[in-house]
Structures are given as structure tokens and as C-alpha cells.
Amino acid sequence: MAQAIDWHLVAGSDRAAVILHPHPDYGGDRHNHVVDALYRGLGISTARFDFSSSDPETAKKEAEVAIEEGAGRAPNETLYLIGYSFGADIAMTVDDPRIAGWCLVAPPLRMIPQEAMVIATDERPKLLLVAEHDQFAPPERAREMTDGWTATTIEVVPGDHFQSGGAASVVDKAKAWVMR
Questions:
Q1: Alpha carbons 96 and 43: distance in angstroms, whole number
Q2: 21 contact partners, CB below 8 Å, separation of at least 6
Q3: Which CATH number is 122's domain given?
Q4: What's residue 2's pLDDT?
Q5: Are strands 15-20 and 45-49 parallel, antiparallel or unpaired?
Q6: 180 residues of the chain, pLDDT tens digit each
Q7: Structural domain of 64
Q8: pTM for the full model?
Q9: How far, in Å, CA of 86 to CA of 60, rounded?
Q10: What does the DSSP assignment read for the chain?
Q11: Spatial separation of the C-alpha atoms in residues 41 and 130, rounded to whole Å
């Protein structure tokens, strides 16, 4: 399962993030406009890669490989996992002790079974950025699905699930959260 990982290294950064992209069967890849905006705009070291499969278990393993490599490249940086859409749902299955927190952008909350969402009771912080007009998990549904999650904040961002023209708001909120 060798994968090419893009690295955007920021000199002097004390934080890093691995970013997971939308569903590969529907055109999602590491160059998605939201992923790219996060990759370039967070002001910290970031990594992105392409999932080789839409199989959740395969995608999870590939995310774990990227986290392993990220921890090796930036051993003194606080590491975050950020996922958009399918990538957000996959991020919810990754429980690595090196992750300081999860930022889930437009999580569909339906690609994986609820029992696989292992981060729900984790004490580490979670930020869900939910589009006000999300077609798959609008704010009210996201609140219902995550009711009872530990250390979880939901913020509403403008636009719909695909964030056409709205990626800047996502980056601003994710950056503020990571830099808190």
C-alpha cells in the first residue's frame, strides 16, 4: 500500500495536519478545492494523499500510514487529522494516540456505521464544520448524530456540502481551531 504523500512544510511550525479528501468514486482526490485550500492555507505543515479505494477499511489504513509518516517527519509538532466529506467519515474511525484532535468538514455521517465512529467518546477535541445547506448532513442532523459526543464543537459554515466558493470560511475556522 505505497502511496505518494504531498507535503507542505512550514518552517518553524509547531503543528501539522494530515488532510483526507472526499469520496474517490465521485471524483474526490487530494486536489479537491477544499482539501487544497486547507493544505495551503492553514499556516502549518500539512500532508495530503489520494485514497486508493473507497473501501472504508482500506482508506483508514492509508490514513494511518500518512499519520505514521507525518509523525516521523514532524516528531515535535502537534498532529491533527482533518477530513472533508468521505475523508471526515474516515477520520472518525482513526484513533491514533498521536492525534491531538479532529476537524471534520461536511461529514456525511453515513459512510460508516456509527459503532465505527471511535472518536465519539474520545476526550480529545473535535470540530465539525457543517455547511448551512449541506445536502447530506445539515446542521440539525449533524447535531442529532453527534449528540453525546465528548469534546465536540459544531460550527456552521456558509454554503452547501460541496463548498463552492466557501472554502475560505472553512480554512478560517479550521485554522482558528488548530491554532487555539
A1: 23
A2: 28, 29, 30, 32, 35, 48, 50, 51, 84, 85, 86, 87
A3: 3.40.50.1820
A4: 52
A5: parallel
A6: 457 899 999 999 999 999 999 999 999 999 999 999 999 999 999 999 999 999 999 999 999 999 999 999 888 899 999 999 999 999 999 999 999 999 999 999 998 998 999 999 999 999 999 999 999 999 999 999 999 999 999 999 999 999 988 899 999 999 999 999
A7: 5-178
A8: 0.97
A9: 11
A10: ----EEEE--TT-SEEEEEE-S-GGGT--TT-HHHHHHHHHSSSEEEEE--S-S-HHHHHHHHHHHHHHHHHH-TTSEEEEEEETHHHHHHTT---TTEEEEEEES--S-SS-GGG-GGGG-SS-EEEEEEEE-SSS-HHHHHHHHTT-TTEEEEEEEEETT-TTTHHHHHHHHHHHHT-
A11: 19
Cell of 162: 460541496
Count the domains in the chain. 1
* Grid cell locating 144: 442529532
Measured between alpha carbons, how far is 88 from 90 in angstroms, rounded to an integer? Answer: 5
Residue closest to 24 by CA, chosen among 36, 32, 16, 13: 32
